[in-house]
């Protein structure tokens, strides 16, 4: 299997606070890897190191055959292949849903006009929002806005999708629709690295679950093992608190 993400001995410090202390992790093509763990364990920092939103202190990160930790790497070329969805949706409030999904196609890929519209509409339909193309973000629920953010990322034809707690800012009744979209994306074969607190989602959708604590991977494996029958005391204690 081909690794889309290959992380070796990744370290990250903020000042003298080491928040990632030697992470090794691969994500293969078509694989869904869910990262779970307590708040402050370094999950977001790990995700942000993948597309260099944070600069690693040491170690190597390869993403779709580019070593992003090489100072000569053209990170913009790599980021084009990596979609990222955050807790906060960060849509452009003054642009329509459709334009939110075409502006980066236009500016970054040079894909314009009818072709960009066609791609955006295809992905908006995929997330169930084909009837909202002319709406503005403020007219949508949080769950709908997050689905627009997913459609916007997909419109760039990513080879990898990163999700950082995409449902944490949503009212409980809106979480399900977003998870359904993510599940469908996983079923369609998208390569996904997902930080989530949704254990049911991780259990069903993940090929592999990674449990992090204090900047290190404590345990990883099939969801039924890590969530269903954890080997490590720290994993058990975390699950006792969240399940
Ligand atoms: P998680 O996503 O698992 O909650 P984070 O990766 O956000 O954890 O944070 C891990 C640790 O790194 C925390 O102690 C946090 O305070 C610290 N941290 C994260 N980002 C920064 C930053 N930009 N500057 C300083 N410390 C940071
Ligand atoms: Mg986080």
From TrEMBL:
Domain ABC transporter: 5-239
EC number: 7.4.2.1
Catalytic activity, reaction form: a polar amino acid(out) + ATP + H2O = a polar amino acid(in) + ADP + phosphate + H(+)
UniProt-listed Gene3D superfamilies: P-loop containing nucleotide triphosphate hydrolases
A single Gene Ontology CC term: plasma membrane
Molecular functions (GO terms): ATP binding; ATP hydrolysis activity; ATPase-coupled polar amino acid-transporter activity
Location of the protein in the cell: Cell membrane
Listed PROSITE patterns: ABC_TRANSPORTER_1, ABC_TRANSPORTER_2
CDD domains: ABC_HisP_GlnQ
Major location (coarse): membrane
Keyword terms, alphabetized: Amino-acid transport, ATP-binding, Cell membrane, Membrane, Nucleotide-binding, Transport
Membrane-protein topology: Peripheral membrane protein
Family: Belongs to the ABC transporter superfamily.
Official protein name in the record: ABC-type polar-amino-acid transporter
Organism: Cellulomonas fimi
């Amino acid at each position: 299997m081909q690794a889309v993400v290959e992380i070796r001995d990744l370290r990250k410090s903020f000042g003298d606070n080491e928040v990632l202390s030697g992470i090794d992790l691969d994500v293969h093509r078509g694989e869904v890897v869910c990262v779970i763990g307590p708040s402050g364990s370094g999950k977001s920092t790990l995700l942000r190191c993948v597309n260099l939103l944070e600069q690693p202190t040491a170690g190597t990160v390869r993403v779709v055959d580019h070593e992003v930790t090489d100072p000569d790497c053209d990170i913009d070329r790599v980021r084009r292949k990596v979609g990222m969805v955050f807790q906060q949706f960060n849509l452009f409030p003054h642009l329509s849903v459709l334009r939110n999904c075409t502006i980066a196609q236009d500016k970054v890929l040079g894909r314009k006009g009818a072709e960009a519209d066609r791609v955006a509409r295809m992905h908006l339909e995929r997330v169930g929002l084909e009837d909202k193309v002319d709406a503005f973000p403020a007219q949508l629920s949080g769950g709908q806005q997050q689905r627009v953010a997913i459609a916007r990322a997909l419109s760039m034809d990513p080879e990898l999708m990163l999700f950082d707690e995409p449902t944490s800012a949503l009212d409980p009744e809106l979480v399900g629709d977003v998870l359904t979209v993510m599940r469908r994306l996983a079923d369609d074969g998208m390569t996904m690295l997902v930080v989530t607190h949704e254990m049911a989602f991780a259990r069903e959708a993940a090929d592999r679950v990674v449990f992090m604590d204090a900047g290190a991977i404590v345990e990883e494996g099939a969801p039924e093992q890590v969530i269903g029958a954890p080997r490590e005391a720290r994993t058990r204690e975390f699950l006792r608190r969240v399940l």
